[in-house]
C-alpha cells in the first residue's frame, strides 16, 4: 500500500516459482477488505495473459463472472463506475499477468517474473515491481488461516507445515499444500537437481548462498529470489533452506569440489 500512497498506479509482486504469490494475494484481499470495508475490490485471474474469472467484492454483495470476456469486462467497468459515483475507493487484484494493464487504475498483480513487464515499467514511472521474499513460520501460520478459513479442521496441520518448512524453507505452495503427492514430487525434484549439478560455481552458490542473479532461472526454481532488506525492488538469490544447503555440501564432498 505504501507504493500506492506514493502515487504508483500498478504494483507487480513477483518472485520465485511456487513461493506462494497467489496465497499472498488471498491474504492481501482478506486484510484489505477488513481494513477498507467501504471499498470495491475486483479480483481477476489470468492464464497466459487471458482473463478467465472475475470476482467483485463490496460490503453489500459479491458478484462473479467467468468464461465470457464481455461479461467479465462489463462487471469490472460497472463496479468501478459505481464506486467512482459513490466516492468509494476501489482496487484491482490480479492473479497472473494480463496481456495489457488498464490505464489509470490501481492494480496489484501477483505473477511470475516477466521481462516484458519489467521493460514496460522502466518506461512508466507509475509502475513498479517488488520481489517477494519467502514466508517465515509465523506468516505461514497466517497464510494457513486464510487459505483454509472455512475448513475445520484444516487439511494441513500446522506441525506438518512446520516440518515442511524445515525441508523447503518458506515456499508456501509446498508447505501449505493439501496434496501429499505433490510435496513428495517436489522434494524428489530438488534431490534430482542437486544430484545432477556438476558445476562447482553452482554448487558453491547452493552451499554458501553466493549472490548471483542468474541461478534462480538456471536451477528451475530450486534457488529463490531474495529481496534486499529495505528495498524490495532489488534482489539476490539463495538456496531455499538449511536442508538444501546441507545436501549441497554433501554433494560437493562427494565430487571433491
Automatic annotation (TrEMBL):
Coiled coil, from the record: 59-86
Keyword Coiled coil assigned: yes
InterPro entries in UniProt: Crinkler_effector (IPR052980)
Keyword vocabulary terms for this entry: Coiled coil
Domain of life: Eukaryota
Protein name, as recorded: Uncharacterized protein
Species the sequence originates in: Pythium oligandrum
